[in-house]
Each structure stands twice: as structure tokens, then as C-alpha cells.
Amino acid sequence: MISNQENDLVEAVIAEAARLQDFLKSLDAQTWTIDSSSEGWTIEDVIAHLANNIDGWNRNIIRAIAGFAGPPEGQAFLPPRERASHPTGPAARESRQQSGPQILNEFIAGHERLRKILETLGDEDWDKPCFHRRGVLTTKAFIGLQVQELALHGWDVRWGLDNEAELSEESLPILINLLPRWVESAFMPGLDLPTPVRFRFAVSGPIEAREDLIVDGDSYKSETSDTEDSDATFFCNTGNYILLMFGRLQVERAVAEGRLTVEGSMERAKDFNSWFKGF
Predict the structure, then answer these.
(1) How far is 263 from 261, CA to CA, in rounded Å?
(2) Is residue 151 part of a domain?
(3) Assigned domain for 176 exists
(4) Is 183 part of any domain?
(5) Which domain, by its residues, includes 229?
(6) 194 shares a domain with 72
(7) N or C: less crowded end of the chain, CB within 10 Å?
């Protein structure tokens, strides 16, 4: 029998997939072509990305359970700081034979296969090493990244139709625990911007946080907020904190929309989007 924490993780994956499926089923063919929050990606592009990748996720979990954590044939680990690319835009759409409704069917079928795999996991499977292109993870951590994929990309497509879209409250505890790994991969060192700079985050809830990120140009560090003055302080709720850290919110627009409040230098606050890039 799996633990409550692991059961919560399985339920979160299933719930996020179902939430996104229900939303997509309501869309007509024309709506699938609307832009998402990801630059250059339509709603159709985002769901094609999820549908095309899910069998790779399923395969990696199955391989991990069997004791294999190395790259599958034809794949390799990404070099440090290299950003993976995904084909988007007109050329990618022309090369894709399926459109919205067909892609949705593939998305649903792939996540049904994932659900069945997750239901077979025993206590001994969760800590087994599992391949991920950015480095080997435990199977538990790898499955957590599927919540990240579904919750954030689900927000991407909903935001294309409703700029007041929010992350589900159920996903927040998992996503906030994934932030340190994401921030490390998203950091862009060596930019020609003023340093050192201290970004402070005052997160009101439902999961409260007080954190500073201090950038010196070539590196950064994270620490609990103290009495030292910050260059820019962001006030927001947990969902918008996560969206900002994962590169979904551009500071200036998020302030205008009421998602963030900034105290201190607005210029330094906007630099946050340059230092920590979403991808």
C-alpha cells in the first residue's frame, strides 16, 4: 500500500488531467487555434506537446520500475543549462497530421495509460531512479513533474481564453516544492543588468512564504527574508507566486492585472523576468 503523500500525488496527476480534459472538451475547432500564454504556442500546440510526450513519461516510469534509469535509445541527458526546444509555429502545425479533437483523444488515451501505470506502483517503486533528460530523479519526483506539466500547461491554455485563470489549489503544495529545481534551471547568469539585486517575495497564502533571491550576476542564492532592504518586493498569493517563478507572468502586465503588487524599484522588479526565464 502506498503512503498518503504518494496517494495524494497520484490523485493530483489524475485530477489535473481530468480538469484539463473537461476544459478542452468544451472548445470548438476555431478556439483550438487561439494563442496560449506561451509565446508562439496556440492551445492546439500546447495540447499536442502534452499528448506527444505522455508515452515517453509512461515508458520512463515503466523502465524505472524495471531497474533502468539510463537514457532510452535515441535520447541523452541535456548538457547543464541547455534548454530543450519544442517545434511550434506554422511549420510544426503543417507537419502535424492531427488537429484539436484528434489530439484531445490522444491526450486522454495517454493519460489513461498513465493512470493504470500509477495504480500498479508499490512502496518499493517510488524511490527507484528514473530517467529525466535533466538528470536522474526518483520515480516519485518524476511523477511530480507530470503535475507541473499538467497544471502549468493547463493554465497556459485557459489563460488564452480567460486572463483571470488560476492554478488549481490542489496543485499548489506540489508545485511549490518543485520551485527550487525549476529556479536553478531557469537562472540566466551573466546578464548585463545591475547587480547585486535582492528580490523579495511576500506570499500571502494559501501557502505562505517569505523568501529572498539574491543575484550577483553569475550566480544567485535563496534565503529566508530578513530585515535587510530589498531592491524589489513582490506581494502576491501562492498561485501567482508560482506562476511568476515558473515564468508565466511578466511583471509589468501582472501588476496591471492585479496579480502582483511591487514595492521598491519597478525597473529591478522587471529584471526578474530576464534573470529567471520560463521555457
Answers:
(1) 7
(2) yes
(3) no
(4) no
(5) 188-275
(6) no
(7) N
- Walk along the chain (279 residues) and give the pLDDT tens digit of each residue: 456 789 999 999 999 999 999 999 999 989 998 988 887 889 999 999 999 999 999 999 999 999 999 999 888 888 766 655 555 555 555 545 566 678 999 999 999 999 999 999 999 999 999 999 989 999 999 999 999 999 999 999 999 899 899 999 999 999 999 999 999 989 999 999 999 999 999 999 999 999 999 999 999 999 999 878 999 999 999 999 999 999 999 999 999 999 999 999 999 999 999 999 876
3-state secondary structure 94-144: HHCCCCHHHHHHHHHHHHHHHHHHHCCCCHHHCCCEECCCCCCEEHHHHHH
CATH of the domain at 224: 3.30.1050.10
10 and 136 together in one domain:
yes
Q: Are 31 and 132 a contacting pair, CB within 8 Å? A: no
- What cell numbers appear for 67 in the block? 531497474
Task: Looking at the structure, tell me whether residues 20 and 125 fall in a common domain.
Answer: yes
